[in-house]
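Subject: for your reference before the review

Hello V.,

The reviewers asked for a structural picture of the protein, and I figured it would be easier to keep everything in one thread rather than splitting it across files. Below is the amino acid sequence we used in the manuscript, unchanged from the supplementary table.
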Amino acid sequence: MKNKKPAFEKISPEFGSSLHVKKHNEVVENNLPFWHFHPELELVYVNKAKGKRHIGSHLSYFNNSQLLLIGAGLPHSGFADRFTTNGSETIVQFKEDFLGEDFFNIPEMSSVKKLFEKAKKGLVFGIETKLVVGPKIETLLNYDRIEQIIRFLEILKDLAESKNYTILNVDGFAFEVEPQDNRKIDIIFGHVSKNFKETIPLDEIAEKVSMTVPAFCRYFKKATGKTFTQFVNEFRIVHATKLLAENPTSITDICFESGFNNFSHFNKLFKKFTGKSPLKYRNEMKQLIVQK
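And here is what came back from the structure prediction:
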């Protein structure tokens, strides 16, 4: 199985544009990490495809299509595993202040400001909103500069007025860090991704970012709302869900392959994290995943 490392992703819009819009008509094999984050919000419309939703602490599969808005700093994975005929994925990435620091603070933009706040936990929109907004997202690439901004503001208006959505990452986390701290979080992510199968002592990870253990613990809890131990365990559970869905290995072997050395502890944490036992999760995934 290909090892994909979660990391900080740097996004660079085209010259002269405040939005980064891209469209995929086939699965793109590149170096994007399996689990990554970035300071930009991300609007995703997947049309006629199947894949995984992996947003913060939320884990699920989807069929046919989906419309998502992911907040800044919220860890997530890529979404489309396989496209059907004429399938596509359109992504818009943008910073909350892409129109200036105060634009969304004016009274007329209050509903969009609230939308951005809700997006910190990840939003998936229902069929009614998807049918209206999805085609508008797909046509954004047909416009340049000011016309694209105008069309995108119309999309944000539609999403802000929609009541047809579900919050995905209800009890999860996002990385709320200052821009200069992105490198620090990137180092932490990278070290965990390489070493999550082993014990990671606090003094070891603190040294990686040139901090004392107490300072590191305070910093990490402020950035994620979780302790470092909780984060590592959730990272291990994320890895276990991937193995359970895609690998026929026994659940006991998956427990140890994911960095746990106690099967009972693994079962307990897995159920707390996903709401179901590893066996139930695997059985449900078998029903949802259509083999290529």
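For the response letter, the relevant points are probably these. The radius of gyration is 19 Å. The first helix runs from residue 110 to 119.

Happy to draft the paragraph if you're swamped.

O.
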